[in-house]
Amino acid sequence: MILPAVSxxxxxxxxxxELERKxxxxxxxxxxxxxxxxxxxxxxxxxxxxxxxxxxxxxESDVGSCRYPPVERPTDGPLDSIHLERYTSHxxxxxxxxxxxxxxxxxxxHCKSVTDxxxxxxxxxxxxxxxxxxxxxxxxxxxxxxxDMEAVITYLKRTQHNIDVFLGNTFLSNLTHLSVISTNExxxxxxxxxxLLPRLxxxxxxxxxxxxxxxxxxxxxxxxxxxxxxxxxxxxxxxWHIGHLMYTSVKDIRFVVMLxxxxxxxxxxxxSGARGGDNFWGKNT
Length: 285
Fold this sequence. Notes:
Layout: H1 17-30, H2 32-38, H3 43-53, E1 56-60, H4 81-89, E2 93-97, H5 101-108, E3 116-120, H6 131-139, E4 144-147, H7 149-159, H8 163-170, E5 177-181, E6 202-206, H9 214-223, E7 228-233, H10 236-249, E8 255-259, H11 263-274
Parallel strand pairs: 1-2, 2-3, 3-4, 4-5, 5-6, 6-7, 7-8
């Protein structure tokens, strides 16, 4: 008896569309290396996977290991502008480190939807913002920002006729989390600009002057709708010294003194928070 030929692939064996998509998305979320390979499976899979693959962008110019997405050909080479717009269209979290201001601007101007931005060691911390940089920053829907604010505020005070309106209504008006890096004592003599950020709830001061005034801490806690204020210290001795002084004079449960995060751990800590995990802000903050 001759049996009719049966196709080795049956339509009944195909997974439902939504289930197939969910499987690919979970695989990509659990292993980015796997996600890189999965985008070659089919066009529909690439469309499912790319938002996960490119949601977080980390570019560190002097780091030899390749971070994803590959927006630069070698680490010190030209930007891969052909694919940059596609990568950044999905980007919601971006960390740029040890880069010059021109390259920083070139990347940021494509990151139109980024809400979480870390800018570390831009031009070695010896930098001055340009108007184009300020315009790009003001155009982003930022909710979390980690950067040296001293140079930015100094520039705004020098160039903006009405800094109150600019800060509160245009620039960083959606900001809820701010980590201020590389500040000096004179900068904190005038912290009133913080009051112009209407949604700010979480504030961290890193690399601050060790003798930052208690009145500054009390003033910030007293005048702002702050839910958490973190003061980082660089070593154990200062941690105990400053912690003791501050906790005896600043009696507020919203105030916390913490050891500064080791440089080698700062990027993993930020990335953990960007992926929904725990970081120095705490989980779910």
